[in-house]
Amino acid sequence: MIAREKKKSDDLLLNILPRDTAEELKTYGKAQARYYDQVTILFADVTGFTRMAERLKPEELVSMLDEYFRGFDEIISEEGIEKIKTIGDAYMCVGGLPVKSKDHAHRVVRAAKRMLDFLDEKWNYYESKGQEGFRFRIGIHSGPVVAGVVGSNKFAFDIWGDAVNTAARVEQASEGMKINISGTTHRLIKDIFPCTYRGRVAAKNKGDLEMYFVDR
Fold it and tell me: The whole model's pTM is what?
């Protein structure tokens, strides 16, 4: 009985935290923050979410978000990408941690393309029922971050750094059903993924940033 409950507790911890971080917390009661010199961060959020929220019942809205985010979870898990969190209608994940990888940018862009394919499938499904599905915009940027656990109650694994803020701005500058990437990420993936140059685009508190749409 005790062993079964311990396994349930461990499984829950692993569902919230990366394995190394969970083991460190169990052993020492705390986890050391770690610096990663190069990761790739993805943000995605629903276009026209406010309008959708006004039209749908709260339970319908939450059910749909859960359905879509579960689909995203499956994709990034298969690509070896770490989910960080969801905030309302926004989804955040990162490639290149907790296990460092040289192809983190390729993994994240590949996952983003699969997300759009998934979204197209869901759109067709809801359209066949005379309903409207969600459309997302996606933004991706690569750079250094610090990762760790904050808090003692309802603790959460998170990442911090200028690269996170930049990724959020790149996502905000994206468009519905498009993958917008920074010039930094483009330099890492251009050998495999064709892109369309957008020029230098204004980003809040970041000035003008080089951005590209990943071609579908």
Answer: 0.89
Secondary structure class of 75 (helix, strand, coil): helix
Residue with tokens 């298969």: 78
b/e 165-181 (16+ beta carbons within 10 angstroms → b): bbbbbbbebbeebbbbb
Sign of CA dihedral 68, 48, 62, 60: negative
Cβ 142 vs Cβ 132: under 8 Å: no
Task: Say how far apart CA 116 and CA 128 lie, in whole Å.
Answer: 18
Question: What is the phi/psi pair of residue 98, to 5°?
Answer: -70, -15
DSSP-derived secondary structure for 112-125: HHHHHHHHHHHHHH
Can you tell me the distance from the alpha carbon of 147 to that of 97, in angstroms, rounded to the nearest whole number? Answer: 8
Give per-residue pLDDT as tens, 20-36: 666 666 565 566 778 99
